[in-house]
Design goal:
Elements lengths: L2 H28 L3 E3 L3 E4 L4 E3 L9 E6 L6 H11 L2 H7 L1 E6 L3 H11 L4 E4 L5 H4 L11 E8 L2 E9 L8 H7 L15
Parallel strand pairs: 4-5, 5-6
Antiparallel strand pairs: 1-8, 2-3, 2-6, 4-7, 7-8
Length: about 190
């Protein structure tokens, strides 16, 4: 294939990917809204915090479902979100929830310099009920919520994994000569 043909095909595929990502987001937002209860979680200081309070003055909320301190992949995503937290918080409430206890969360967040709200779901059914945890495993991802008339509705959700649309490093490293196949995130390099 000629260089011009390659460039044309690449541009067409990139456009198609953007269009499909937009269509997927639109379809997810068309799903029936799921009313969720006002779960109680624990903040890094050990205080009980309800889900409704995480909205703050916003009508929308983004909650990151994180596997906790033991997962270098979840840490990679959280490190990236940390750099964008002020942008997220300009648009919606933003918090990260993990199964770690609040003391572990505080220590780990401080060691990473994380600035976002961290909450423990250790004594809550929150991640179970929202489909990010079962008796065998925890899955990372996020949920978006909307508050209306004193109720909370989940609008959409998605899981995280290598190569997803939510962590740019996979796409950039994937374009290196040898790609990202043998690369794995670590807590420290």
């Amino acid at each position: 294939m000629s260089e011009n043909n390659l460039k044309t095909e690449i541009e067409a595929l990139e456009k198609e990917l953007l269009e499909k990502a937009g269509k997927l987001a639109d379809l997810k937002k068309q799903m029936p809204r799921e009313e969720v209860k006002d779960y109680n979680l624990t903040d890094c200081e050990g205080n009980s915090v309800n889900l409704f309070s995480l909205f703050g003055e916003k009508d929308d909320l983004i909650v990151i479902h994180n596997m906790g301190k033991s997962c270098p992949y979840c840490t990679l995503w959280a490190d990236g979100f940390n750099g964008m937290v002020h942008h997220f918080e300009n648009r919606a409430g933003f918090a990260l929830v993990s199964p770690d206890d609040h003391e572990t969360q505080k220590q780990f967040a401080d060691s990473r310099g994380w600035k976002f709200k961290m909450l423990s779901a250790k004594d809550s059914r929150f991640t179970f009920d929202l489909g990010f945890q079962n008796e065998e495993y925890i899955m990372p991802g996020f949920s978006t919520f909307r508050k209306e008339n004193g109720k909370i509705y989940r609008i959409a959700s998605s899981f995280f994994g290598p190569g997803d649309l939510f962590c740019s490093i996979w796409h950039m490293v994937g374009l290196l000569a040898d790609g990202a196949e043998e690369w794995h995130p670590q807590f420290e390099y």
